[in-house]
Automatic annotation (TrEMBL):
Protein name: Periplasmic-binding protein/LacI transcriptional regulator
Taxonomic lineage from the root: Bacteria, Pseudomonadati, Pseudomonadota, Gammaproteobacteria, Alteromonadales
Leader sequence segment: none
SUPFAM superfamilies reported for this sequence: lambda repressor-like DNA-binding domains, Periplasmic binding protein-like I
Superkingdom of the organism of origin: Bacteria
PANTHER family, per the entry: ALANINE RACEMASE, LACI-RELATED TRANSCRIPTIONAL REPRESSOR
Domain HTH lacI-type as annotated: residue spans: 9-58
InterPro entries recorded: HTH_LacI, LacI/GalR-like_sensor, Lambda_DNA-bd_dom_sf, Peripla_BP_I
SMART domains with a match to the protein in the record: HTH_LACI
Organism: Catenovulum agarivorans DS-2
Amino acid sequence: MSSIDMQHIADLAGVSRATVSRALNDSPLVNERTKDKIKQLAQEHNYVINEAARNFRLNQSQTVTVVMMTDPLVNQQSFDPFFMEMIASLLEALAKSELDMLVSHEPITDATSFRNSRIYRQSLGLIVIGQGQGHEQLNALANDKLPMVVWGVPTQGQAYYLVSTDDKQGGKQATQHLIEKGCKNIAFFGDKSSADSGLRYQGYRAALKEAELSVNPELDVTVPFVTEQSKNAINQFLDAKPQVDGIVCCSDLIAMSAISCLQEHNLKVPDDVAVIGYDGLSFTERTSPPLSTVNQDISQCAYKLVDSLVGLINGKQVENTLADVQLIERKSTQRN
């Protein structure tokens, strides 16, 4: 292999070292003809940029930190399948942008302390998953030089860039789907103190109102995200033998707990009670019965988060994103 360096490539191409560097990094500052010439010379001479040395010289990290803003008030856990699928999708999207990923499981509770942390100093940018109870802290970080994009819900006074899905519309779609299947006594399972669940509940109420169905407080059930706690809440509800024929669940994990508890109470899904989840997690097509769900397209959202962050890193104008959701019908709601 040749020991040729960047200066040799520059001399052969009749350009500066800086132009060679820009061309090999696909900079838009170099025209395509020059870029192709330099890449061809580099290939012919087996020249590859030493990324470690380059980053050292530039004193620039290529690591994006993903911060998990789990909400302790609703017992969210970082090992929730939703978070795991989001992390996997972010890893794939960042790799395609030739960026590394560091995951922090510690929510940002104090902006000043976070600014002084090693994570902050060594990151090229931040992707924050969820707002938890940290909206004000995220606002405090929004005007920093460190680029940041947040996955969450639109919030009044929000100063940071946001990627989100339409939770209210998703809750409405899920409820309308059960109404179309003939359900009239539809329960809502979730914790409305969580911002996204609160919006899904608004959609649930809106769908009932449009169908001229009453909102029964007894069918509004606070169900935590943690599996064992969710099962306790659901079993307590079912032990009272409520009149219910459909359940809108705020997550696929809660829906799985609901199906398990219904089966333990000798109730058939979907013949006795139809169940729909939320998130569109990959395991939902393999459950028994396969679970209908409101799909947020986690992979697409992860790529949008990365695209927005890369745009900010490159000094581009970035807009907030509110993506649509898609209802996926499976056997858990296919009533006779």
